[in-house]
Amino acid sequence: MKKLLGITGLLLAVFVVTTLLAQQADGSNSFLTAYNLQNLLQRVGMFGILSIAAAFVIVTGGIDLSIGAVVCTAGCMLPWLLKDCALPPWLALPLVLLLCAGIGLWHGILIVGLRLQPFVVTLCGLLLYRGLMRWFTNDQTMGLGSDVEGLRWLANGRIPITASFGFPVSALILLVVAVLAAVFFQRTVWGRHLFALGRNEEAARFSGVATGRLTILAYVVCSLLAGLAGCLFVLYVNSAGASSFGNFYELYAIAGAVLGGVALRGGEGTILGVVLGSSLMQVLAMAIVIVGSGNQLEFAIVGAVILLGAAADEGVRRLLRRRR
Predict the structure, then answer these.
(1) Domain that includes residue 150, residue range
(2) In whole angstroms, what is the distance from residue 289 CA to residue 243 CA?
């Protein structure tokens, strides 16, 4: 609870400071516009799903560095299935999600079956999937065109709240994913076993927990959600280039999860904290652009967040060890 209060207070503080710094001499505010707030919620929706994806593997004590490459895979395959293969959206979208879930299954099998380190498996996946997509698309941009407006509503649609403001559908999708993930973590045996696996894998195994199956499940869910976010991203921008689409998105995902209280050592975290952490990352990114002179510091802030999160995690671990 203290972590949730802390991240909520930090989010509010950054939001207020950004609002004050964006105040113009004529009384207008370049931050508190309907367009900016809708765009902010839209980005929170998509990046929030990625942070929840990362949380599933981090709570087990693992890591997934291939999230950005999976986003790239989904972003390239969806236009290909829709345009080149002329598949209907109701078939193309599930096929892309199934492919991404298969990637997670492959990761889980390598980690559990061959006892390979998650860092090595997913780092190789980062290189492998992006390289395959560059070869598959011949480094050409995969565009959706204007024939899938109904499907693009998932990423660009808005539910009217007022005459000038609409709640983005992508943020609504995040809320659905967050509720389902929270119920899974807090209300199911498998969710509690995931946390037990992250705290002490050997003790969990001796207690009868199916650690191998749960590890595979975590990586499947992670890649599945990354694929869902990848579909939303390509629907949002209407095109994807394999050389750059989804670059560094795994860092945003990990940073949002860590900032939201998911311990890098595993076994600790909440979905609400992850959503708040991802929201804070996006508010910071928008604040840099609006208040500063560009987005040059964005990657520096992401790196600083991950470093501070790792340092705080290690500090908490040492404090608990001393108390014991």
Answers:
(1) 39-309
(2) 24
pLDDT of residue 295: 67
Using a 10 angstrom Cβ sphere, with 0-12 exposed, 13-18 middle and 19 or more buried, the burial of residue 195 is: middle
- The rounded distance, in Å, linking the Cα atoms of 211 and 225 is 21
CA-closest candidate to residue 254, choices 308, 194, 317: 308
Which of 227, 220, 221, 226 lies closest to 95 in space, CA to CA? 227
Other Cβ atoms closer than 10 A to 141: 14
Residue 177 — very low, low, confident or very high, per pLDDT cuts 50/70/90? very high
Question: Side-chain half-sphere of 51: how many Cα atoms within 13 Å?
Answer: 33
Question: Token pair of 225, please?
Answer: 């959600």
The number of domains in the chain is 1
Determine the distance from the C-alpha atom of residue 225 to the mean position of all C-alpha atoms in its chain, rounded to a whole number.
8
Q: What is the pLDDT of residues 17-66, one digit of tens each?
A: 888 888 777 777 778 888 889 999 999 999 999 999 999 999 999 999 99
Cβ-contact 55, 185 below 8 angstroms: no
Cβ–Cβ < 8 Å for 204, 106: no
Phi and psi angles of residue 125, each rounded to the nearest 5 degrees, phi first: -65, -40
Q: Would 34 be classed as within a structural domain?
A: no
Residue 86 has φ and ψ, to the nearest 5°, of 55, 35
- Residue 23: its pLDDT value, please? 79
Averaged pLDDT for residues 86-108: 95
CA 216 – CA 291 distance, rounded (Å): 43
Rounded-to-integer distance, Cα 278 and Cα 323, Å: 31
CATH number for position 133:
1.10.3470
Q: Rounded to two decimals, what is the model's pTM? A: 0.92
Cα–Cα distance measured from residue 14 to residue 16, given in angstroms and rounded to the nearest whole number:
6
Q: Which band of pLDDT confidence, cut at 50, 70 and 90, is reported for residue 292?
A: low
Cβ-Cβ contacts under 8 Å for 304 (sequence gap 6 or more):
none
Tokens of 85: 């293969």
Looking at the DSSP bridge assignments, the partners of residue 167 are 159
Helix (H, G, I), strand (E, B) or coil at 159: strand
Q: Is residue 302 part of a domain?
A: yes
